[in-house]
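Repro:
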Amino acid sequence: MEQAATGTGISPVAAVLTVFALLFAAIAWLRLLGICFRRDTPLGLIAFFLPPVALLLLLPQRRAEPELFLLVLAALVSASIAAVL
């Protein structure tokens, strides 16, 4: 096996953090879809096509669904750390 050239490739820790960020984001999006479609069909459609807008619309009720916002925060933190590494 040949080694990757210096300065190219991704570190193993960054790769794992990227995978975690994708998993957290996918789980958060599915949970967001469920919450929004339970509340209202147009809100569910907004969550399907524009998830950040739906998160902003749910922000005032964040105390009712804290797990959703923790998942989004975990995805953002994982992706941010992976980008720095």
